[in-house]
Amino acid sequence: MKKRFLAIVLTLCMLFTAMPAFAETTLNVERVSGADRYQTAIETSKEAYDQSDAVVLASGENYPDALVGGSLAVQIQAPLILTKSGSLPDGFHEELERLRAEKIYIIGGENTISKELMESLAYRYNPVRLAGDDRQATAMAVYQERRLIAGELKEILPLSARHTVNGWDFPDALSAGPLVGRQAASTDNINFLFLAKEAPDTDGVIIGGENSVKGNVKKRIAGADRYATAVEVAKEYVNRFGAFDTVVLVDGTNYPDALSASSLAGAKNAPILLTRPGGLDQATLDYIRSSAKTVYIVGGENSVSSGVITELYYNTDSLYAELKAELQKYSKQDYQTALTGNERADMVTLLLEDREMLELANTFTKEKTDRILAELTLPTGLSELERARAATLLTIVDIKPEDFERFYSAGAYVAQSYIPIFIDAIHGDLPCELSLTGNTSDANILCYLPRAFNQVSLFMENEMLKVGIKGISEGLSTGFNIKKAEYNADYDPTLSLRYGHSSIKHAMQLIGLLRSEQIEAEVWLEPKTSSYTYMLEWGPIPEPSRDYEVVKVRDDLYIANALEYDMVFEFKDKAGKDAFDQLINTYSKKSSANPTGEGMLAGAWWQPLYTSETEMGSGYTPITDNFIEEDGYELHSFTKTEDSSAFQEGYQKIDGDLSIQTKPLWTNDAFYRYLNDEAE
């Protein structure tokens, strides 16, 4: 009879718990902007392309030529750069040198971009002017060039290729650019962006509603307004070219920055969507969330406010929306109407809930709370829980203590006016850089680390997975982990611990706990796929998602694959490392005495897992990490030390060429008991 060796097996909590609000979306939002429309165009070029043989140059002082030039830029996958009529923007030549460009398409006549400016470019580049007597003739000149580039220049224009948009307003034509330009990737049909207020015949496509373009055609792509029309164009984009995971978002009310969007649309295979400067329409927001992983916002704060970014990161039915409603209510009050103590305490609670940190406050002892609030004068009527929540908020966000104190003061005006400071402290770190590494003291770590983790997906395309599943099917183990070697932390093993879990909310609260205990550590998040036997008695097999799926291996064997992480902490000193065990046993380990984890971090486990590569004292037991490396991936499975040889022998029978390595580890007693098949 084969002996079964236990490996890391997940708890079931991740099957039934929704992703927390802060990590609810996997969106990566990036803003691209410059000091003005011309610098925004150059910065967008830098973001879009490392190299390009050609550049499309259009006027930044008016939009029609740039709109049709956008379809050319998308087709040839080149940046669209804006210029004034008689002078090139600062940094233009440097950008063309960076791109190693050799050709410039100048869109529009000499009244738009002067003859002298074109001649100044001839010494180095090959400028080609595409122009006509008016915007419609210029659109035709661009179209003919596009057909020539695609090798499909014919004397007769196929009317079905004509996409009529209003050339006297920019939004619909801007949205249409990627749809029309991308079509040229197929030489079967080169679509034409035709500028008119009325379709000339019944063939072709109209983009926009009746108020934009009149006419009866076989197909009209339109919504209730420009924002909804852009969404409908994006849906048509999917119909023609397949799904996308990137969108470009621009101001739908003003054109200067928006014109540069074509550069990114062509480079990233992305449609262009529109927003109001201060907020997204619900249809646009819903479509982005259902379709995109990355959103590029083109333009500065005056074009698209940071409030739009916040809306992208937070659900409209989240606590953030509730908080905004509360703030709107308070903002309508007379400043002489004071917020009550309860209202202020409720505001703090709401902020903690929104940041998924409410459970962390439950771990704050009176002594810790008193220490954090020692220099503040807060109302005497606050309960210990309210004081703990106040101390938690001060710990996790960058709020000046004096601002916090004034918020709680009796003066109506002061309390009222400091509400926006709270909002900035909670949400001012968005957007933040994406990184899997940082320090517990970093102001933005609670923003960038979960966002980076949410960009990772299951590691399914590798031979290690097949080997591990074969081991489970033959009874050698009940589970294993797969990592990419590139994610491995390079920390001092004498000062480091590796902590495993599935909930990113739990990880963030653990960082907050260390911060509140004044324990500083470098942090490195190592994403991993955990695979383990799925038991049908656990319930119906859930639908697959980005971070979880169940695969049928045979009639009596199902394997669950779940996205998890190891969080590696490198402490400043040995004292911090030694203190970790007591913190976890106190605040993150369920027991028969506390089966619900009351007063603990969110996602507390019965048998948490953390290991050290160097010997530890009381509270730790030696085990063995059995691992296999191949093609940049690593398979890890933990066993008791005495069981390691049998484990290796079993896998050698699966594949004699496998090189199985071992490493001694010291794990916490709770996980060792789990390996020993003990309940607690």
Features:
eight-stranded antiparallel beta barrel; globular; 25 helices; disordered N terminus
Mean pLDDT equals 84
What low-confidence regions span 5 or more consecutive residues with pLDDT below 50? 1-25, 315-320, 331-338
Q: Could you say which structural class the secondary elements and strand pairing correspond to?
A: alpha/beta
Helix content: 25-40%
Cα gyration radius (Å)? 30 Å
Oligomer: single chain
Main sheet, how many strands, which sense, barrel? 8 strands, antiparallel, barrel
Question: What proportion strand?
Answer: 15-25%
Q: Output the number of helix runs.
A: 25
Distance from first to last alpha carbon? 27 Å
State the strand order across the main sheet. Answer: 14-16-18-15-19-22-20-21
Shape: globular
User: How many strand segments?
Assistant: 22
Structure description:
It is a single chain. With 680 residues, this protein is α/β, with parallel strands linked by helices. Helices cover 37% and strands 20% of the residues. The strands form four sheets. An eight-stranded antiparallel β-barrel has the order 14-16-18-15-19-22-20-21, surrounded by five helices. A four-stranded parallel beta sheet has the order 1-12-10-11, with helices on both faces. Strands 3-2-4-5 form a four-stranded parallel beta sheet, sandwiched between helices. A hairpin with a 2-residue loop joins β20 (620-630) and β21 (633-640). α3 packs parallel to α6, α3 runs parallel beside α9 (261-268) and α7 (171-182) runs parallel beside α8. The chain is globular. Mean pLDDT is 84; it is low at 1-25, 315-320 and 331-338.
